[in-house]
Write a structure and sequence with these properties.
Residues 386-400 have a biased composition (Low complexity). The protein is mainly β and 431 residues long. 11% of the residues lie in helices and 38% in strands. Among the domains are: 30-108 and 263-329, Sandwich (Immunoglobulin-like); 157-255, Tick-borne Encephalitis virus Glycoprotein, domain 1 (Sandwich), CATH 2.60.98.40. The protein contains three helices and 30 strands. α1 (3-24) runs antiparallel to α3 (410-430).
Length: 431
């Protein structure tokens, strides 16, 4: 091989492995999820607006529900009331949002139970309605956006959970499923559903029956004091032998029946107050004037979790500034592929599979009092929204994609080997 070409290849390998090594040693302690920046010197006031396409903290699937894009999902926007100079290019340096000028709206949308979408001849279940409230997934109770229950867990279409006889599956939110036993013929299983150790329901399911008969649902009175389904699972298969008995569960779906959230006009969420609480739409606006701090990298809180960040006054065009909404997410100290929502209400992120629908939400019970937890001493990453991209799975809360790379030391080893190879090549060239 030509020596110059060999040296070039070795150099390229070294650079690539060095980048991988450096990436492997940088673990983000927090991620700032950012909306698309807008320049107040060139943006009309009526275009100061962000939705799921431009702010990743919002959750909505534009591809799956393209027919419902208009007005569906979450929306944050400015609407001038004519009191103070309006934000935007007519008043580039204006930085005051008067009471009732910053709006947040969210609307419910239909979602299929996984067992209904993946199995044939299902008549027992079909659709339920979801709504995201400040980026977090809820099920609307009886399709009413004013009565909500948190989505605690939803298995993806290809996910399976295998339980041996006597084994317990800790699902989420204190709920667990125990496989009590398999009958001797291997076609029936007996299991129980628990909440914090208290038995809620039991079932005997036979895989010889129809698809509907293999679906187990648990219901209770909650929300509007009527009976509603809060748990669904499907027995895919059972197996019994002299050594091992087990059952396979799929399409499991769980909401929190014990902490329903009711929304009424006048309720407050951070700096927002509910103006309209309708069956299919929630409208809020700021209850107090907001003065935006336009100093570089400053924060102006708009809810307990969200805030505006800006450039510096005059850094935009025509003497304006750049502004965007943002949210800080703390990455849990666990595997690099998953960041789970902490008790402070930060969003769950699963970077191992952006399209995953296996949802588990862990957060404070009080939506109104959630607070942003920041790690000012740690490294932070940044996630921006784009107008051409949207979340790929409606059932996934979370609201944005990010990555935290764990250091393994292997990349550094490759970089060292590559460096040795380059030194060797250069020495060869001097012989």
């Amino acid at each position: 091989m030509n020596l110059k070409r060999f040296k070039a290849i070795a150099l390229a390998i070294f650079v690539l492995t060095l980048i991988l090594a450096l990436a492997g040693t940088c673990t983000a302690a927090s991620v700032e999820i950012r909306g698309i920046p807008l320049d107040t010197g060139s943006t009309d006031s009526q275009n100061i607006s962000w939705d799921f396409r431009t702010f990743p903290a919002f959750a909505f699937n534009a591809n799956k529900y393209s027919n419902y894009v208009s007005g569906v999902g979450e929306h944050l926007y400015f609407e001038d009331k004519g009191n103070s100079p309006a934000l935007g290019k007519d008043n580039p340096s204006a930085s005051t949002i008067d009471e009732g000028e910053l709006f947040y709206t969210t609307k419910q949308f239909p979602s299929k139970y996984k067992v209904f979408s993946e199995e044939e001849n299902v008549t027992k279940l079909s659709f339920f309605y979801m709504m995201h409230l400040f980026g977090k997934p809820y099920c609307t109770i009886d399709n009413d956006a004013t009565h909500l229950a948190k989505m605690l867990y939803q298995q993806g279409a290809s996910d399976k959970k295998t339980l041996k006889a006597g084994e317990t599956w800790d699902i989420a939110g204190g709920y667990s499923l125990t496989l009590n036993g398999i009958d001797v013929n291997g076609n029936k299983c007996y299991f129980s559903l628990y909440k914090n150790g208290k038995e809620l329901d039991t079932a005997v399911i036979s895989t010889d029956n129809t698809i509907d008969d293999r679906i187990f649902t648990a219901d209770a009175e909650f929300g509007d004091n009527a009976s509603h389904i809060y748990f669904v699972t499907f027995v895919d298969s059972v197996f019994a032998s002299a050594d091992t008995d087990f059952a396979v569960f799929k399409y499991t779906w769980l909401i929190d029946k014990d902490n329903p959230l009711s929304i009424e006009s006048g309720d407050e969420f951070g700096n927002f107050e509910v103006d309209q609480a309708l069956e299919n739409l929630i409208v809020m606006s700021n209850s107090d004037a907001i003065t935006i701090n336009v100093d570089a990298d400053s924060k102006t809180n708009i809810t307990d979790e969200w805030y505006f960040k800006t450039s510096d006054e005059g850094k935009g065009s025509n003497g304006g500034y750049v502004i965007y909404p943002a949210k800080t997410v703390i990455l849990a100290d666990q595997s690099p592929a998953t960041a789970t929502e902490t008790a402070t209400g930060t969003a769950e992120i699963d970077t191992s599979s952006p399209a995953s629908s296996n949802v588990q939400v862990q957060e404070d019970n009080s939506t109104q009092t959630k607070a942003i937890t920041e790690n000012s001493s740690g490294n932070s990453g940044e996630v921006y929204g784009t107008s051409s991209e949207a979340p790929t799975e409606a059932e996934t809360p979370a609201s944005a994609s990010s990555e935290a790379a764990a250091s393994s030391g292997f990349g550094g080893f490759l970089a060292f080997i590559s460096l040795v190879s380059i030194v060797y090549c250069f020495k060869r060239s001097q012989i």
